[in-house]
Design a protein that fits this description.
- With 496 residues, the protein is an alpha/beta fold.
- It folds into two domains: 268 residues, Aldehyde Dehydrogenase, Chain A, domain 1 (3-Layer(aba) Sandwich), CATH 3.40.605.10; 185 residues, Aldehyde Dehydrogenase, Chain A, domain 2, CATH 3.40.309.
- Helices cover 38% and strands 23% of the residues.
- It is built from 16 helices and 23 strands.
- Strands 15-16-17-14-13-19-20 form a seven-stranded mixed beta sheet, with helices on both faces.
- A hairpin with a 4-residue loop joins β4 and β5.
- The structure holds nicotinamide-adenine-dinucleotide.
- Nicotinamide-adenine-dinucleotide binds next to α8 and α9.
- This is methylmalonate-semialdehyde dehydrogenase (CoA acylating).
């Protein structure tokens, strides 16, 4: 079976233990991945510490040359990366290409690092005294990433960290690890010095070793809320800078003045694309006023037409879930909702894909008459399940969203500007769409949620990413001429 090894100091490092990587569309084992622990993390961090000494000193111009080459290589290998993602994650190739493109855009953003790291200069802040600010790299940064975007989510982190003069240790998801090794190879081909980008595979033991390692300065995490909370707590207690992005329950609010047919199409794609395994997937609809029955009918019609199949099949719109456990969890969540009184309008639990009996497929599920008290609403199902709640007014809908523990993304469907403005200002959510179902910010803005969707203060990529991976310095300087009388002040310095 194919082996996926660690990548440390510019070379493949053979594992001592391995876990199996399955093909979600068939349920068959397809590769084995090394499972690292403290020993591999020590090796990787030591390589990153050594590399950082010279990489941090490298001119901005030389750093950006590597990033420009990396950008081109990722574009050239878009299909290779996408197919690796499809084979191990299960999403369609077209969808996987989308994540490679969104990841590449972060590299493009990082290519502008000379502009982004420009400090500020104040001339003559006091007589003969100037002041300027600059941003310095942190050292070794670590990234721990989820299964659902094995190319894009790590790329939210490492291009920015590396451009800022840091070195990086990535611990990708053990479910779909191959793309990270191809990315490491592309960095090497782009001329990135050995040790600047390292990959340690594995699970909790490798993560804990990173969180506890004295030479790791900062940790970026993306994954489920319980693990995000844990990572944030443990790394913070160890004195590290941490950004930990967690799970989500993203609401689409539909007002009576919306184009309902358009809203139903948009919401369907955002709910079931990638089998609902996106942190920005719409998983709850709040139908306002009189829209409920007609909207449910339209959503049901759309859900029934979604083409489910293996991700490499040309016309498939939605692939399988990532593991058999994920499939079983989704099926159980729909059953529990039904028992709690929800109406199952579209039921994908029994879906079978011809020739793929062992695959982890579940078809689109649409649940109506869901209330905020039901577990199908309260919990992140992370599968192709869309629940519909009803509200009488926009304010009631905003109240539902704000009472939810998560605050990643949300969308409003309306034709009214005043309602849209009220919604944007009123919701306690980090990323908001107006007639846009998946409001994923571009690379030059920052991505992140509120409440239980983010632990820490900074969002990823964009200006907040640069701030996260650098520390500020402010310099106050004076160059007295020989003829000037030297005078020392014992009072606290004030400008003169
Ligand atoms: P996960 O939390 O199970 O795993 C994420 C990472 O943490 C993996 O690398 C995994 O190996 C590691 N890990 C798992 N358990 C751990 C533990 N107990 N201690 C230390 N490390 C541990 O998440 P997942 O199932 O891979 O991904 C899906 C989740 O990620 C969903 O909740 C989704 O909403 C979330 N997500 C959030 C965002 C966002 O931007 N907020 C983006 C993508 C995914």
């Amino acid at each position: 079976m194919r082996s996926i090894e660690h990548w440390i100091g510019g070379a493949s490092v053979t594992g001592t233990e391995y876990a199996t990587v399955h093909q979600p569309a068939t349920g068959q084992p397809q590769a084995r991945v090394a499972v690292g622990g403290p020993a591999e993390v020590d090796l990787a961090v030591a390589a990153a510490v050594r590399a950082q000494e010279s990489w941090g000193e490298m001119s901005l111009s030389r750093r950006t040359k590597v990033l420009f080459r990396m950008r081109d290589l990722v574009e050239r290998h878009e299909d290779d990366l996408a197919r690796l993602v499809t084979a191990e994650h299960g999403k369609t190739v077209e969808d996987a290409r989308g994540e490679v493109i969104r990841g590449r855009e972060v590299i493009e953003f990082a290519c502008g690092i000379p502009q982004l790291l420009k400090g500020a200069y104040s001339d003559q802040v006091s007589t003969g005294v100037d002041s300027y600010s600059l941003r310095a790299p942190l050292g070794v940064c670590a990234g721990v990433t989820p299964f659902n975007f094995p190319v894009m989510v790590p790329m939210w982190m490492h291009p920015v960290a590396i451009a800022c003069g840091n070195t990086f240790v990535l611990k990708p998801s053990e479910r779909d690890p191959s793309a990270s090794n191809l990315v490491a190879q592309l960095y090497a081909d782009a001329g990135l010095p050995d040790g600047v980008f390292n990959v340690v595979h594995g699970g909790r033991a490798a993560v804990d070793a990173l969180l506890d390692h004295r030479d790791v300065q900062a940790v970026s995490f993306v994954g489920s809320t319980p693990v995000a909370r844990y990572v944030h707590g443990r790394a913070s207690a160890n004195g590290k800078r941490v950004q930990a992005l967690g799970g989500a329950k993203n609401h689409a609010v539909v007002l009576p003045d919306a184009d309902l047919a358009d809203a139903a199409r948009q919401i369907t794609a955002a709910a079931y694309g990638s089998a609902g395994q996106r942190c920005m997937a719409i998983s709850a609809v709040v139908a306002v006023g009189s829209t409920g029955d007609e909207l449910v009918q339209l959503l049901g019609r759309e859900a029934a037409t979604v083409v489910v199949g293996p991700g490499d099949q040309e016309h498939a719109q939605m692939g399988p879930l990532v593991t058999s456990e994920a499939r079983d969890r989704v099926i159980a969540a729909v059953g529990a909702a039904q028992q709690a009184g929800a109406t199952v309008v579209v039921d994908g639990r029994e879906l079978r894909v011809a020739g793929h009996d062992g695959g982890y497929f579940v078809g689109p599920c649409l649940l109506d008459q869901v209330t905020p008290q039901m577990s199908a609403y309260q919990e992140e199902i992370f599968g192709p399940v869309l629940v519909v709640l009803r509200a009488q007014t926009l304010d009631e809908a905003i109240g539902i969203i704000n009472a939810n523990p998560y605050g990643n993304g949300t969308a409003l469907f309306t034709s009214g500007g005043a309602a849209a403005r009220r919604f944007v200002r009123g919701v306690t959510v980090g990323m908001i769409g107006v007639n846009v179902p998946l409001p994923v910010p571009m690379a030059y803005h920052s991505f992140g949620g509120w409440k239980a969707s983010l632990f820490g203060d900074t969002h990823v990529h964009g200006p907040e990413g640069v701030a996260f991976y650098t520390r500020g310095k402010v310099v106050t300087s004076r160059w007295p001429g020989r003829a000037e009388a030297s005078r020392s002040d014992f009072h606290f310095p004030t400008a003169s």
